[in-house]
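Usage

Read records sequentially. Each one opens with the input sequence:
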Amino acid sequence: MPDYQRELQEVQRICLETGKILMQYFNLKDIDVQDKSPGNPVSEADYAADSYIKKELNRLFPGDAILSEEAITQKERDQANIHRKDANRLWIIDPLDGTKKFLRGKEEFSVSIGLVEDGQPVLGGIYNPARDHLVAGGPATGLLLNGKEIHPPKDTFTDFRQVRLCISDSEQRKNLFEDISHASIAPQTSSIGSVAWKLALSAAGEYDLILSRRPKSEWDVAAGMALFAARGFVLLNENFEPIPLNQTNTTIKGLIGGDPTAIEIYRSIISGNRLT
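and closes with the structure output:
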């Protein structure tokens, strides 16, 4: 198995440099914003970060394919899809995960860069520049937090109340987790924005379980899946099924991820209707 040390170093560097670009736009009042679809904004910060990441990846790894959330033109998107179809190595990126939070001046956003090889996540880097928090690594490299190797402890769970759960604050506002929050055995629950940021924090030891009950995309999770693999965590869809990457349809139906024991406790609870 390749050791991915070169890729790891470059991913960390690119994340940090992209973070500098994003912070130039953070809290600007006159930033240009468009809607890709209703309620789905994209800003000039997204495009500036996207352009830099693609330029660097193409320069460093010219034979690799790239899948990004942002494609300025349909032609660019079509070309990317053709290139990645049979690619052995694919970089899946989200130059600014958490655009809504970013535009509101909230520090819950991140740069997400993942490397997929033969359909498997092998390396990831997720960086929150507002908090200077960079988690990078994969199953072959281990985990790094701001460049230093970390070994988050593995917790032991006997009760759902012991689990540290992280959910989306927007999903919480829509009462999508009302069954859990009002349960007598509810876990310790936090809610934040940016899927990638949640994955990074979980991989670094902040949370044991993350849940999402709304569709996500491959660029939301590719880097985090590599970090999870390094931690011994897993990431599944809402049906407790593995998530394949580099699919024609990049949509993922919900997320269940984290410590395998915490996931099994959650599975047993919802399957047995033991939330109350």
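Summary fields computed downstream for this record:
- The mean pLDDT is 91.
- The chain is about 35% helix and 30% strand.
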